[in-house]
Amino acid sequence: MNVPVRATVVDITTDSGGATLRVDGDLDLASAPLLMDRAVPVLGPGGGELTVDLTGVGFCDSTGIGALIKLRQRCDQSGWRLRTVNLQPPVRRIVVDFGGLGDYLNVL
Questions:
Q1: Which of 39, 101, 100 has its CA nearest to residue 75?
Q2: With b meaning 16 or more CB within 10 Å and e meaning fewer, what string describes 63-72?
Q3: What's the whole-model pTM score?
Q4: CA nearest 84: which of 39, 41, 42?
Q5: Which of 6, 48, 76, 84 is deepest in the core (most CB within 10 A)?
Q6: CATH of the domain at 41
Q7: In total, how many domains does the chain have?
Q8: Digit-coded pLDDT (tens) for 16-54
Q9: What is the number of other CB atoms lying within 10 angstroms of the CB of residue 56?
Q10: By CB neighbour count within 10 A (0-12 exposed, 13-18 middle, 19+ buried), where does 105 fall?
Q11: What's the rounded Cα separation, in Å, for the pair 104 and 108?
Q12: At what angle do helices 62-78 and 32-39 cross, to 10 degrees?
């Protein structure tokens, strides 16, 4: 049985307070560069809040976690605040419970 492969989509919206990055699909080796490519250009001077909405993410591997950590570091360097929201139970288990990154990634 072939399981269809679903492409990861990263949409970004901006407003006066910052930006929201919505990820739909797996956050893994194949899609982590897309996350960074979409997020980093938004982190301009003046700061703000970058919200990473993981509602549509059902799987996150170590590369995906690494991308979230790098994104937090970029936010710190640029004067931005990172929030990570709507982690689905399997992703929350990996990132928060096993990885211990809840506070670092400001998981809500």
A1: 39
A2: ebbebbeebb
A3: 0.91
A4: 39
A5: 84
A6: 3.30.750.24
A7: 1
A8: 889 999 999 999 999 999 999 999 999 988 889 999 999
A9: 18
A10: buried
A11: 11
A12: 10
